[in-house]
Amino acid sequence: MKQRLALFFFVTFFAAAAAQAQAQREYIILVGGPSLHRWEQYKSQPHDHWWANFVHAARVRTEELRANLGPDAMITWLVYKPGYIDRGVQEKQDLVANIESVRDKFHLHLVFFTRGGDVINYLNNGQPRDRVKVSGFEYFGHSNKACFLFDYSNIVDSASKSWLHETELKNISPRDFARGAYVKSWGCHTGESMSKLWRDATGTSMWGAVGKTDYSTGELPALSSAGGKWVD
Fold this sequence. Notes:
Elements: H1 2-23, E1 25-31, H2 37-40, H3 53-69, E2 74-80, H4 81-91, H5 95-106, E3 109-113, H6 116-125, E4 133-140, E5 142-143, E6 147-149, E7 163-165, E8 177-185, H7 194-202, E9 206-210, E10 213-214, E11 222-223, E12 229-231
Parallel strand pairs: 1-2, 1-4, 2-3, 4-8, 8-9
Antiparallel strand pairs: 5-6, 6-7, 9-12, 10-11
């Protein structure tokens, strides 16, 4: 009887500990903004015909995460708000409200940001990182080999004024991440340089693309360059 009672308390204790450990994890989805028609209309291959390129891909991924992690897992969306305000004027829609409807459907923690420093600040201080570790971090948006480009072709034609550059990654604390955290950029070219500096700065590997990625599939982005591949 004593052995059974001891076994019961042992199992109960570790089940509670496992549940607590699950509750102390956060999965972060970073979403950049779309370009504007006024800058893209005369290009042979214009970007972002659909305002929701990045939002839809993030939603597809969020559905996967909810199915795998469960209804109570903390999933946070960090969204570049100015891009959707500007594109909303073009679309004659309230795109911020559309994004908030995704939050409500999937029970997300939604945080809007305006600059790269906001992303670093959230990673370091958005939750008490001694207790709530980042178990996953994925980016959906424009990028080149050295930058996440949050407002590419939104304020300035074919350029950005809001970004997270690889030289700024050193400001991210490695303590933010859980052991074995999954990190991936779904943007173009990240695997050609930025992934290495991410690993040097944070101690976690970031999967990134060599070449371009295509958001027009209606699913998760696909590699679209000849010889393209995912590397970490």
